[in-house]
Predict the 3D structure of the following.
Amino acid sequence: MSIKYLDHESCVMCGMCLEHCPTYAISKNEAESPRGRISMISAINRGDLEVNMKSLTHINNCILCLSCQKACPANVNFKEIIGSFKKDKLQTLSFLEKITLFIKRSHVFARVLFGKLI
């Protein structure tokens, strides 16, 4: 696991990021929140959670708008943690897996941009 992910430990899980995250605002799913993504990356880093399509989908759905980073009182570098994780893990996927994640993520982008109608 990359040393870049170690900064995830600076997250104090306060939840200040939740109200600023567009994917969480739409889904109200903790796994679609910055805190949830940091928790998953932390669990994967410890070996407590397997990297699979479900965890990758939640992490990949982050649109890296960085609203969470601006709101974070602990100054967690979400861009570095989530961006590096996505870059490293997505390189290991097959073409079909990448297409599957792309299609799932396009729905997230559309919902963030155009609301719940899509």
Residues 3-114 form a domain with the Fumarate Reductase Iron-sulfur Protein; Chain B, domain 2 fold (CATH 1.10.1060). The chain has a mean pLDDT of 85. The chain has six helices and no strands. The first helix runs from residue 22 to 27.
